[in-house]
Amino acid sequence: MNKIRTFLLALMVMGFAVACSSSDDNSETSGDGYNRGALLTNLADNIIIPAYQDLNVKLMSLKADKETFIATPNQTNLDVLRTSWLASYKVWQSVEMFNIGKAESILYGFQMNVYPTSVQEVEANIASGSYDLTHPNNNAAVGFPAVDYLLYGVAADDAAIVNIYNDAKYTKYLSDVINQMQALTETVLNDWTSSYRDVFVNSTENTATSALNKFTNDYVFYFEKGLRANKIGIPAGNFSSTPLPEKVEGYYSKVYSKTLALDALDASQNVFNGKAYATSTTGESFKTYLQFLGRQDLVTQLETRFDEAREKLNFLNDDFYTQVTTDNTKMTEAYDALQKIVVLLKVDMLQAFNISVDYVDADGD
Fold first, then answer.
1. Residue 6 burial (CB < 10 Å; 0-12/13-18/19+)?
2. What span, in angstroms and rounded, lies between the C-alpha atoms of 52 and 44?
3. If we measure between CA atoms, which residue out of 226, 271, 224, 219 comes closest to residue 249?
4. What is the pLDDT of residues 219-254, one digit of tens each?
5. CA atoms of 206 and 343, how far apart (whole Å)
6. Which class for 334: exposed (0-12), middle (13-18), buried (19 or more C-beta within 10 A)?
7. Could you give the 3-state DSSP secondary structure of residue 358?
8. Does residue 189 contact residue 49 with C-beta atoms inside 8 Å?
9. SS3 for 236?
10. Which three-class secondary structure string do you get for 63-128?
11. Torsion of CA 62, 219, 100, 133, to 10 degrees
12. Phi and psi for 26 in degrees, rounded to 5?
């Protein structure tokens, strides 16, 4: 009987140990108890997919307007095409931060918005008539910045720009670039709606490869690099010995740099707040996650910093090239305002979520 009692006691101890181990595992995967799945669902269904859908619609319109312009190159059709380009580019500011899933695997962002465009590469492609626009070597010769050049900078004035599209090589390249942009966007959108959405919303664990951890890192990386550095810091000279005004977004169109930067800031704040892309409704978000964790203080700081950064951007010239060359101090002030948000997102928010930074930089934040 003593041996049986000892054996049963051992089984009970082992069972207790297994139960504790199982409980610990669940704690590691569920983390702080917040419903990460609800956050991911709101992101996918109300923000990411609707933004991609709108971008695809805008790019389809851009394709149609391009066909009209190619068939009849004139000032009216050029103006319509430029309007479609800008409408698409503005929506892109809500999409660029979503570098996850198919977008990451096909290097979507690199094929859509590497600026400044390489005029040398664009013109070499046009001259040869033979090119692979999907090749990484052409990243600076495609996408929105290439179309910016083709619609605004390819000749000295509008009359000359219209006239240049009587050349079949130029019409072909313009057509190919825009067609590629729409095709890439449709590929990413179809992946989200056919399969990746479910993969994304169900990847709730707190690991380096889980959807929320990767998405959060991508969001912070975009804000730090795509918005703060690329749109403001690099042209203003924050990373060089002198300002580099030719590296602004929308360099050839001249008047849209601020519009695009403000759209990007609004889109970033909307994601933080969980605001739906197409409506004013809000859902689970980084903001509600922080509030769940008792970090309303951080939410308040971020809301204040977003407003301050928007105020600084609104002080800038519509054309950042002009701003850098005439009064660069305002550009560096806008950079400083955005940098304050970077620190809160990259250090305080990620620490609150217990998410590790998955990229390396030398900015010293």
1. exposed
2. 10
3. 226
4. 999 999 999 999 999 999 999 999 999 999 999 999
5. 22
6. buried
7. coil
8. yes
9. helix
10. HHHHHHHHHCCCHHHHHHHHHHHHHHHHHHCCCCCCCCCHHHHCCHHHHHCCCCCCHHHHHHHHHH
11. 40
12. -65, -40
- Residue type for 135, please? H
Which residues lie closer than 8 Å to 196 by C-beta, 6 or more apart? 101, 102
What's the farthest any 2 CA atoms get from each other in the chain? 103
Asked if residue 148 lies in contact with residue 253, where contact means CB atoms within 8 angstroms, the answer is yes
Compute the distance between CA of residue 330 and CA of residue 342 in angstroms, rounded to an integer: 19
- What value, to the nearest 5°, has the Cα angle with vertex 140 and ends 131 and 233? 180
Burial of 50 (0-12, 13-18, 19+ CB in 10 A): middle
Count Cβ atoms within 10 A of the Cβ of residue 80 and give its class: 0-12 exposed, 13-18 middle, 19 or more buried: middle
Q: Looking at this protein, which amino acid is placed at residue 332?
A: T
Span 30-81, pLDDT tens digits: 379 999 999 999 999 999 999 999 999 999 999 999 999 999 999 999 999 9
> Can you list the alpha helix ranges (DSSP code H) found in 113-167?
119-128, 143-148, 158-164
What are 108's two structure tokens? 């979507």
pLDDT at 363: 57
Q: Which 3 state secondary structure label does DSSP give 206?
A: coil
Dist CA 365 CA 363 (whole Å) = 6
Give CA–CA dist 289/348, Å, rounded: 13
What type of residue is 87?
Answer: A
Q: Which of 73, 173, 178 is nearest to 124 (CA)?
A: 173
Instruction: Give the number of other Cβ atoms within 10 Å of residue 266's Cβ.
Output: 15
